[in-house]
């Protein structure tokens, strides 16, 4: 019966993914579902942190309280949520006022009213080149102790959906990077054409002129190209695809 229940919940997380328009939206809905599930007489605030290789971390939260807690943790550069995502092990801080592991974080959190923090890693394969964690916050010290097993279960059940979301996001990013590279190439080739028309030089020589200007001005090659094209009312040429 428990396996059947877990399968149903896992399918529900997949439904959340399919209903979300991007990675950030999915992670936000995931954090909201987790917060509702884990809250009882005492409210639990949740967030999900996802780190991808060579990409800015994605942080989603169930409410403004969780958002503020994440901001504090990242500004301090230390904390249970970061440790859980990096190590793959759950981190329990039953009372921030008594725990000595994160001095900068503990000091920054002293006036927030949040006393308990629990972070459960979302297990992702190493091939994904990503790490994630479900972060739980409560104003009551020790209250998350009774909900740790459920938080870890939610993190495990959501893992497949998070992995799919990461793969979708990676494919989208690759497509966006390729489109940007092609647009940049278009601007450079058009600017080279302008130089060729004005000076009668070869394409290779025109590219060298652009590269030299880029190095001398310490600006990107595409920016040099668009500055030339701006004189011809074509400051942002694009490559269009059917």
Task: Note the topology.
Layout: H1 2-19, H2 23-38, E1 45-52, E2 58-61, H3 64-76, H4 80-87, E3 91-93, H5 103-109, E4 116-122, E5 130-138, H6 148-199, H7 203-217, H8 221-230
Antiparallel strand pairs: 1-2, 1-5, 3-4, 4-5
Describe the structure.
- This protein has 8 helices and 5 strands, in the order H-H-E-E-H-H-E-H-E-E-H-H-H.
- It folds into 2 domains: 2-173, Transcription factor LuxR-like, autoinducer-binding domain (Beta-Lactamase, 2-Layer Sandwich), CATH 3.30.450; 175-230, Orthogonal Bundle (Arc Repressor Mutant, subunit A), CATH 1.10.10.
- Helix 3 (64-76) packs antiparallel against helix 5, helix 6 (148-199) crosses helix 7 and helix 7 (203-217) packs across helix 8.
- Residues 1-8 and 234-242 have low confidence and may be disordered.
- The protein starts with a helix and ends in a 12-residue tail after the last helix.
- The chain is elongated.
- It has a 5-stranded antiparallel β-sheet with strand order 2-1-5-4-3, sandwiched between helices.
- It is an alpha+beta fold.
- The longest helix has 52 residues, at 148-199.
- 57% of the residues lie in helices and 13% in strands.
